[in-house]
């Protein structure tokens, strides 16, 4: 008997509900800032990726409004037909210079960037070796290729060496890693990974979604953090949301990479270009982070304070090295209960459980931003102390 749509939907939702994995996203009733209103309650926001506080920054809004007025509400077409406005190419040149790359190309999102770039680069007979904790967009992007896919242990250059040694190929060899890992907040040992890749004739592909705007001089990212910005065997991709506060994805590397992506990357070829207001806001974000170092200074000062105080309280931060600050609760039910209790105390911080993170490693992922005040963080710490003791975690 043919499965009916309503039965399939009901069955899938019932499975999610019974396993405790059915999502009910909270709704923000105001702009995404360090303090905002969620479901009618004023809260300290520790749940966003708005690292530098740019999502509602006046400079971004002003340039977005100016571009909207001059260039219109939308681009009107895909880039390869009639959708490439002069401002698109101007911003890509600005981004390439910021990243110290030969060229840059903007795509619709960080997720589709991985699909587009990996799908364009890799062919049957190639070898790609991916960190076991890489983001879902990398995993899905690799599934679309015909390359031989292998995995190395998380952040383990010795295991990467083993995998590359055990799988010789005459094709392209590509090592893929996140720059900063979004669930644990640790930084890839990029210098060691690139060294091993070079020993085996491989190139390195870094998804810097959580590193751009956070690491390196003026937020240039993980590649710059390790002094690899001038390397011609390192490809940088990432998102234009998170620290940049807007939306989109990018690939930065040799000029020929840009030309090939223009001709082969399917998300680029078959999606309408970014609206002018988005381009204006992104251009303002790059200007702002380079002209005013205080954004990154506040981000890291807040990060150091918050981490140190949580550790003093007795929480396990899982080795985080960045503003991504996971607090380990173990079981998903405990993490979700902690999230609800924190919300009751005026703190918006989301619990994460399996399958987003491994079983037994459920956590609340906090992200500290440049916009948080010391008072915001002290309020959050007081709430964590109260909730952690009530649940027997500390």
Automatic annotation (TrEMBL):
Is Cytoplasm included in the keywords of this UniProt record?
no
The answer to whether keyword Ligase applies is yes
Q: Highest taxon of the source?
A: Bacteria
Cofactor requirements of the protein: pyridoxal 5'-phosphate
GO MF annotation list: ligase activity; pyridoxal phosphate binding; transferase activity
The record's section on InterPro entries has:
Aminotrans_II_pyridoxalP_BS (IPR001917), Aminotransferase_I/II_large (IPR004839), AON_synthase_class-II (IPR050087), AONS_Archaea/Firmicutes (IPR010962), PyrdxlP-dep_Trfase (IPR015424), PyrdxlP-dep_Trfase_major (IPR015421), PyrdxlP-dep_Trfase_small (IPR015422)
**Subunit-structure text:** Homodimer.
Q: What is this protein called?
A: 2-amino-3-ketobutyrate coenzyme A ligase
Q: Which organism is it from?
A: Deinococcus reticulitermitis
